[in-house]
Amino acid sequence: MKHGLVLKKVFGVSFGMLLAGCAMACIYYSGLGSDPITTLIDGITHSLNVGEGLATTIVNIIFFLFMVIFNRSSLGGATIISILTLGIFMDGSLLIINYLFPSEMPLIGIVFLSIIGSSLLGFAIGYYLSFDFGATPPDSVPLWIWKKFEIRYQYCVWIFYSICLLFGVMLGGRFGIGTVISLVIVGPIADLTMKMRTRKPLWGESSIIQNNN
Question: What number of other Cβ atoms are within 10 A of residue 84's Cβ?
Fold first, then answer.
């Protein structure tokens, strides 16, 4: 792969991670409930009586092992970039949001922020995946479902998020209307974003999926 193309992918994926960090910060700040993956993390926090940091590490290890065992082709630059930058981007975005937005917002403003965050997260996922430079460990699960069952990517995200939400709630994780908004919105927008950027049907065409072992 040419150096120029690699740099383009690195910068493109990094920008996608920046958008994802901003999106996650908006969802968190709205206080209406986190995304389903965070609900799963919260459930592990309560059921195992561990801190959120350790629970996040446990979940990431589980998804990484899934990636290594079932979807090795999704390992790539995006995997490393997400590990190094996503948390930093989210923390930085939270600082900016805390400065720009009032501590008390009307309900309509909170709902709007949650919808914006979920929409931006869907766009960010579709954007960085379209560079075909690997995926984050959680992304490897819907990508695997995508190849296995050859259904639209948005359905794969719905299945994955629903499973995370179910286990998270069973383990005592917190959720709210924002969690449902995230579950419903992220998949279709990620699906549409990839379709617009790659100009390909969203089933069976990505090399991330076709080369999966």
Answer: 11
3-30 and 77-100 helices cross at what angle (nearest 10)?
40
Is residue 211 within 8 Å of residue 73, measured between CB atoms?
yes
Give residue 125's pLDDT.
95
**Gap between the terminal Cα atoms of the chain:** 21
pTM (two decimals): 0.85
User: In the chain, how many domains are there?
Assistant: 1
Q: Are 208 and 132 in contact (CB under 8 A)?
A: yes
Whether the CB-CB separation of 122 and 185 falls below 8 Å is answered with: yes
Query: Does 194 reside within a domain?
Result: yes
What are 46-61's pLDDT values in tens digits? Answer: 899 888 778 888 988 9
Identify whether the C-beta of residue 70 lies closer than 8 Å to the C-beta of residue 208. no
